[in-house]
Structures are given as structure tokens and as C-alpha cells.
Design a protein that fits this description.
This protein is mainly α. It has one domain. 78% of the residues lie in helices and 0% in strands. The protein contains 20 helices and no strands. Helix 6 packs antiparallel against helix 7, helix 8 runs parallel beside helix 20 and helix 9 packs parallel to helix 17. It is globular and about 65 Å long. The two termini are 37 Å apart.
């Protein structure tokens, strides 16, 4: 029971510091770590916990992808992608809303920052939606819910925590690990259903509010946008192709030529070099080469420190708490307690989705995955859920739900700011998105839908 008390203390500290004192989430997680060190009397192990938090290799992949998103945003390559998408589908009813889903999901996957992505793409998509008849509160929620899709779509930096959780589970359960490519294929397979869910939601709301297509004056010219932005549309190929090749040829082509260990380490390094290659490609295709000189790029990253630091800080401090909780057996205690409930498959899926939803109101999704990921995978696996599917759903039930559920749903507030929407109306409309997200999570985890890669 002491272990569960520590969990309660962590939740209480984060809740009070974030909600009552309005301080940043990374400060709340760090403070929780310090309080837990004091309460548990483990200050003698503090350097061990810090070392484990900083020595997670996946952390550096996260930095690479966030840095890449800064480069793509500052060079306006993102704007080119949005303009091309708008020119294609802006002509249909609700086209601006569909554009918001596609563009924001893609950019959110690169940055892993829901609120940051809302501010980056929302300044273009939200005004376009409002001009075609979307109510302000609906435009804000479409953008915020689309942006947080990025938390579960590779190559989001948030995905790395889920991969680490599955690796921990696999080693403890004595089952074979999977390649990065294989894992990411399953993640894309899961993401397709949630993208479809949001598209259906937009289609339904468009009928209800009688939304119109974008006017010809607001539509980007198709010929001009393709002429100036076609090269930017190849970015997904540079990002996705290495993972597809890794998943398809890991067991024969790479193992034959590099050996088992070589193929394994090549798979693990994909995360790092994809971000670098994509960044180099962005520098090659940018029209104004004077914006990507070494000094200008250094200034971009210097200016983007504020957007990188909070996300990295939350993960580092979360990894440190995770190391402490592993030492104290907190996650195991939670797992043992839930195991005594003797739940069947549906009841366990409902329970874990409800727990992550409630925790997501105060605890960052990345911290949930780091601290409780292996336990959730174990509990779901014990009732018949495919452990690989359970791991692939962690960024969804933790990261996405955390991002769209108030009061920690920062994306909604960012969308409200741009849309200038009423809080009460935005909150009520957001409940539809949260409810459908929750239901679809259950459907996917129950295995009632086919998933690519499984």
C-alpha cells in the first residue's frame, strides 16, 4: 500500500502545482520527484535516478525530431504543405476542416507538441474554417484534436516512450522484441482509425452547421502551389520510407548482411538519422537559401529552446520518477492491485482507458507512458490483448487523451485563443471529441478492428 501512496503523492503534487499555482507541467513533475525523494528517503539514490533518466537513448531521438519540426516551421515548408492540401480539398464542403486534420496530424507527428502545433498550423486553418461557416468553438476543437493526433503518429517524439515500455515488457516476459519499423507500422495502422474518426466527425458537423466550401478568392491556386511546394510533399517519403524498409526487410536482408546485432542496432538508429536526413532535405528545397545558413539555423534553434525544453524536461523528469518507482515497486503494486479485481478483457480495457483519462487531466501523457507503460501492457496482455497493440495504443490512451481532456488539455486553450471562441461553448463541443475518442480506444484495444502490421 505504501507504493500506491507514493503514486497518490505524485498526482497530488502535480495537480496542485499545475492547477492551483498555474506553473508549467515540467516544474510540477520535477517538484513531484523532489517530494518523493524526501518522502521515500531515497536521496542517497538520486544520482542513480538522474543517470537513468538521462541515459535513455530514445531521449536524444526526441530532441532530433523536435529540432526538425522547428526547422520545417521556420523555413515555411509547413505553409507550403498546407497550401497544397488546401488547393486540392478546399473546394469540397468543409474542406478547410479536412485540411486542418491532415496538415495538423502530420505536423503534430513531427513535433510531438500539441499546443505548439495548434499555434503553428492553426493560424492558417482556423481562420479558413471560420470564413466557410465553421463556428469558432468547432474550428478551435478541430484544430486542437487534430494536432494531438501527432502524439500517436510516428515519427512523433512521444512514440519513443511507448517503444521503451514495450521493450521493458518484452524483456520481462521473455518474448522476442520487435524492430522499430515493425512497431511503427502498427502505430500507423492504429492511427488510421483515429484519423478516420476525426474526418467523420468533421463530415457530421459540416452537415449540422451547413458549412460551405471555401470561396474561390480564399483558395490557393492549385498550379501555383504545386509549382512552389511540390518538393515539400516528398518529406513524408523521406520520413516514412526507412521505417517501412526496416519492417519489411529486417529479418532477411539486414540480418543476412549485418548479423542479428547489426540489424538490431541499425533499427534503433533509424530514429536519429531520419530526422537528420529530413532536415537536410528541407534545407535543400527551401527557396531562400540565405535563411538556412549555419548562423541562421543556430538562431532558429536558439529561438526554439522554449519549445524544446518543456517537452524534454517533462520526459527527463518522468524517466527519473519512473526509475524511482521501479526501485520502489510502485508500478508492480498498481498492477497487483488491479490484477486482484479479476476483470475480464472488456472490463480491464474500460478500467485502463478510464484511469489514463482521469490521470491525463493532471499528469502529462509522456510521464504516464514512462512510469506505467509496462504495467498497462502486462495487464492488458493478461486478459488477451495483443501486447504489441497495447504498446502501440499507449501514446493514444495517455498522450492524446491527456492533450484533449481539460484541465491539462492545453491544445483546446491554444485553439480558443486563435479562434476567439467562448470557453463554455468550446468545452461542451470538446466533450463530443473526447467521448468518441474514448469509445474508439476501447474498440481498437478489444481487437474489433483490423490493424495494419498485426
Amino acid at each position: 500500500m505504501e507504493s500506491l501512496l507514493y503514486l497518490g503523492i505524485m498526482l497530488a503534487v502535480i495537480c496542485v502545482w499545475f492547477l492551483a499555482f498555474k506553473r508549467p507541467v515540467y516544474e510540477a513533475v520535477l517538484l513531484a520527484f523532489i517530494v518523493l525523494l524526501t518522502v521515500t528517503g531515497t536521496w542517497s539514490n538520486v544520482l542513480i535516478y538522474i543517470n537513468e533518466g538521462l541515459s535513455t537513448s530514445l531521449l536524444y531521438s526526441m530532441v532530433a525530431f523536435v529540432a526538425m519540426s522547428i526547422l520545417l516551421t521556420k523555413t515555411k515548408i509547413v505553409d507550403s504543405c498546407i497550401a497544397v492540401i488546401l488547393s486540392f480539398i478546399g473546394r469540397i464542403r468543409g474542406g478547410a476542416g479536412y485540411t486542418a486534420i491532415i496538415a495538423s496530424a502530420f505536423m503534430g507527428a513531427l513535433s510531438g507538441s500539441g499546443p505548439g502545433n495548434v499555434m503553428a498550423t492553426g493560424t492558417l486553418t482556423i481562420p479558413a474554417m471560420k470564413r466557410t461557416g465553421f463556428p469558432a468553438e468547432l474550428a478551435a476543437n478541430i484544430e486542437s484534436n487534430s494536432s494531438y493526433l501527432g502524439n500517436m503518429i510516428p515519427p512523433s517524439s512521444n512514440i519513443v516512450a511507448a517503444m521503451a515500455a514495450f521493450t521493458t515488457f518484452a524483456s520481462g516476459a521473455g518474448i522476442a522484441d520487435v524492430s522499430q519499423g515493425k512497431f511503427w507500422i502498427v502505430l500507423w495502422g492504429v492511427s488510421i482509425w483515429f484519423i478516420a474518426q476525426r474526418l467523420i466527425m468533421v463530415w457530421t458537423f459540416c452537415r449540422y452547421y451547413k458549412v460551405q466550401p471555401m470561396s474561390k478568392d480564399d483558395l490557393p491556386d492549385l498550379k501555383e502551389t504545386l509549382k512552389s511546394g511540390w518538393q515539400a510533399m516528398f518529406l513524408p517519403v523521406f520520413i516514412l520510407l526507412p521505417f517501412v524498409l526496416d519492417a519489411a526487410f529486417a529479418d532477411n536482408f539486414f540480418v543476412t548482411r549485418l548479423g542479428t546485432d547489426g540489424a538490431k542496432y541499425l533499427s534503433k538508429s533509424v530514429l536519429l538519422f531520419v530526422a537528420g536526413i529530413s532536415s537536410l532535405y528541407a534545407c535543400l528545397i527551401v527557396k531562400d537559401k540565405s535563411t538556412v545558413t549555419p548562423s541562421k539555423i543556430a538562431k532558429m534553434f536558439a529561438g526554439g529552446i522554449k519549445s524544446i525544453s518543456p517537452a524534454i524536461g517533462v520526459c527527463v523528469f518522468g524517466y527519473m520518477i519512473g526509475a524511482m518507482f521501479e526501485d520502489l515497486g510502485v508500478a508492480e503494486s498498481l498492477g497487483e492491485t488491479m490484477a486482484t479485481w479479476n476483470f475480464g478483457k472488456l472490463a480491464m480495457v474500460l478500467a485502463i482507458c478510464a484511469i489514463t483519462c482521469v490521470m491525463g487531466m493532471v499528469v502529462p501523457g509522456s510521464s504516464q507512458v514512462v512510469i506505467f507503460g509496462p504495467v498497462f501492457i502486462t495487464l492488458l496482455s493478461n486478459v488477451g490483448v495483443d501486447p504489441l497493440l497495447a504498446a502501440a495504443m499507449l501514446p493514444c490512451i495517455c498522450g492524446v487523451m491527456c492533450g484533449i481532456t481539460p484541465p491539462l488539455g492545453l491544445g483546446m486553450y491554444a485553439g480558443m485563443t486563435i479562434a476567439e471562441s467562448d470557453f463554455s461553448k468550446t468545452f461542451k463541443n470538446n466533450l463530443w471529441w473526447v467521448a468518441t475518442q474514448f469509445i474508439l480506444q476501447i474498440v481498437v484495444l478489444m481487437g474489433w478492428l483490423p490493424i495494419l502490421g498485426l
